[in-house]
Amino acid sequence: MDVQFTTHGAVIHTDDSFDLTNTFECGQCFRWEKISNSTYSGIVFGKEVTLSQQNGCFLLSPCTPQELDDCWRTYFDLDTDYRPIRQTLSAVSPALRSAVESIDGIRILRQDPWEALCSFILSQNNNIPRIKGIIRRLCETFGEKCGSGYTFPSADILAKENAETLSPLRAGFRTKYILDAAQKISSGEVDLSSLYTAPMDECRKELMKIKGVGAKVAECTLLYGLHRLEAFPVDVWMKKALACEFAGCTPELFGEYAGIAQQYIFHYIRTRPHPSE
């Protein structure tokens, strides 16, 4: 990776694949907004930035050398070369090779664990436009002004609220789950920071102390918020895939990169016409 800095921000050149649309619209995040064919805007870790892609280069604005090292290099997982990962997964089975070859440029973002946990609690039995709407109202109501938008509110802030004050979010049954999550995180009953290194079974049990957090939300939080790449979220699409095109495959078969394999399979099963159609 080569980086040059201008008055506008950082110009990033990478030999490895990185596609903004495939990364931001694969279902792992909900706060990046497309403002043109090749440009996205988002608020991450209390900073509003835009990221544009053109001819294999990326312009991240604003961005200083210190901000790149302190935040963005990690957030975008820029130091990970995904090419050997793709090769490793392609060797697992012909079906997974087809899935890997169906899309390029997906990177697993290293998001804030609390934001990821809340986002996937809100994602239950929901669609992406509605999820984004609830999260936007959550930030507008309880976050701090940040450029043209708002920051994501902390667990400490939401722990002080109640079902009535959260009613403008129109989150339905998920409201009580968000409150329980905030209270358990704020009190220290659930320690997200410990989940970066704890054994996966312990991580799952810890997250599932929170009301409304089942296996899928726990796996999503571990993969997208804590960068535990061995996590493997399973929803109706994945159940269909594992029962049909990937019959006989298990998350254990995909090894340490199971979460990345999940992204390829998820895209593949959603975009590939079913043989009976």
Q: Regions with pLDDT < 50 over 5+ consecutive residues? A: none
**How does the helix and strand content classify structurally?**
alpha+beta
The tally of helices reads 13
Radius of gyration: 19 Å
Measured between the Cα atoms of the first and last residue, the distance is: 43 Å
What does this molecule look like?
The protein has helices spanning 20-24, 65-75, 82-90, 94-101, 113-122, 128-142, 155-159, 174-187, 200-207, 215-225, 236-243, 251-254, 258-271; strands at 2-5, 10-13, 32-36, 39-44, 47-54, 57-61, 145-146, 149-150. The chain has a six-stranded antiparallel β-sheet. Helix 4 packs across helix 13 (258-271), helix 5 (113-122) runs antiparallel to helix 10 and helix 11 crosses helix 13 (258-271). The longest helix has 15 residues, at 128-142. With 277 residues, the protein is α+β, with helices and mostly antiparallel strands. A hairpin with a 4-residue loop joins strand 1 (2-5) and strand 2. The model has no long low-confidence stretch (mean pLDDT 93).
Overview features:
8 strands; 13 helices; 277 residues; two-stranded antiparallel sheet
List the helices and strands and how they pair.
Blueprint: E1 2-5, E2 10-13, H1 20-24, E3 32-36, E4 39-44, E5 47-54, E6 57-61, H2 65-75, H3 82-90, H4 94-101, H5 113-122, H6 128-142, E7 145-146, E8 149-150, H7 155-159, H8 174-187, H9 200-207, H10 215-225, H11 236-243, H12 251-254, H13 258-271
Antiparallel strand pairs: 1-2, 2-6, 3-4, 4-5, 5-6, 7-8
Helix pairs in contact: 3-4, 4-13, 5-8, 5-10, 11-13
